[in-house]
Amino acid sequence: METVIYRLPDPREDTWLEHAAETLQRGGLVAFPTETVYGLGAAMSHPPAIRQVFTVKVRPNDNPLILHIYELGQLAEIAREIPPVAYRLAERFWPGPLTLVLPARPEVPAEVTAGLPTVAVRMPSHPVALALLRKTGIPVAAPSANLSGRPSPTTGDAVVEDLFGAIDVIIDAGPTGVGLESTVLDLTGDRPRVLRPGGVTPEMLAEVFGPGIVEAPWRVEAQRPAAPGMKYRHYAPKAPMKVFAGPVEKVREAINGCLRMDLPQGKKVAVLGFEDSRDRYPGAIFKSLGEREHPEAAAHRLFMLLRTCDREHVDQIYGELPTTQGVGLAVVNRLWKAAGGDLIEL
What span, in angstroms and rounded, lies between the C-alpha atoms of 150 and 229? Predict the structure, then answer.
């Protein structure tokens, strides 16, 4: 397949919007930026295209997708029995990095829901995504635009690396903002529950629900996932990875203990750490997650750093975990998933 790449902003690419929308309307696949990560879109009205998303990504077909909309009126076309709190959340956080899980209407294809009675919906805030959705006029199912299990793409180049030649259109609008996928909040149970932490933090949700109402664990697994990222190994670099949680000095001591075993064997080792740990891991390639007190930087950099480790052909990766406060909860979740659950608590 010949993939058309539009790199924005570029005055020579003024046809991108019409071409990309027409591609979705006729059942093609389009990768586009959101404020979280790049998504791989197929129109809800074309189940064969949605099935092709699973094929292209090599994604398990029991892993549901998120439907993206551009206006609140579309929500009632996708979901039923919508609780009033869903509209309060939409008013507070949409457009933005919050996905709501609600009872699905019969019109939603089983390819989107993975056969579940629920559907995940969000309204992205990226202007390119909103323009494309509005022009297309149809809800768009869009997981991250990467091969399943790989670090999610936060740049157009990462999409090209994984999917060039396998999809119709790639819209490259530069780096994304948040850098981690959206928060997924299930509103179908007795209590609201975060199925995947993201840019909308538990502290932010507490402003709507009150303190202590929302369940927000950072370890979220399921036999049958109700939302993306719950069951399968995600965000994984090619090299084996291990992450450490605990007091800073104990974490440094543990990672250096691993380095003393790895480096004499000639292994090329990377450490994902915070700025106050720079120069604390002699012999390792240090990858900065930013300031420890500001996990937003770690969220923005994480997937890019994991892909950099792949390009540099490292043999082993170790990582420091941030606080679970704020967006740090999402960073801990992604590091844990990227390491395949190989977490050492000190």
Answer: 12
Residue-level pLDDT at 7 = 96
Read off the tokens for 238.
Answer: 């090619």
302 three-state secondary structure: helix
Q: What is the pTM of this model?
A: 0.93
- The segments of the chain whose pLDDT lies below 50 read 223-224, 232
Q: Does the 4-209 domain belong in CATH 3.90.870.10?
A: yes
**CB distance 42 to 53 below 8 Å:** yes
Q: Which amino acid is at 135?
A: K
- Rg of the chain over Cα atoms, rounded to whole angstroms, equals 20
Q: Are 1 and 28 in contact (CB under 8 A)?
A: no
Scanning the structure block, which residue is given the tokens 């323009």? 131
Helix (H, G, I), strand (E, B) or coil at 319: strand
Question: Domain residue spans in the chain?
Answer: 4-209, 241-345
CB atoms within 10 A of CB 1: 11
pLDDT at 35: 97
Alpha-carbon gap, residue 44 to 27, rounded angstroms: 9
The CA distance from 128 to 32, in Å, is 8
Per-residue pLDDT tens over the stretch 139-185 = 999 999 999 989 999 999 999 999 999 999 999 999 999 999 999 99
List the alpha helices (DSSP H) in the chain.
16-25, 47-57, 75-78, 84-93, 110-113, 127-136, 156-163, 202-209, 248-262, 295-311, 328-338
Q: What pLDDT, on the 0 to 100 scale, is given for residue 215?
A: 86
- In terms of CATH architecture, what is 241-345? 3-Layer(aba) Sandwich (3.40)
Say if residues 239 and 317 touch (Cβ distance below 8 Å).
Answer: yes
51-60: pLDDT as tens digits: 999 999 999 8
Question: d(Cα 201, Cα 98) in Å, to the nearest integer?
Answer: 9
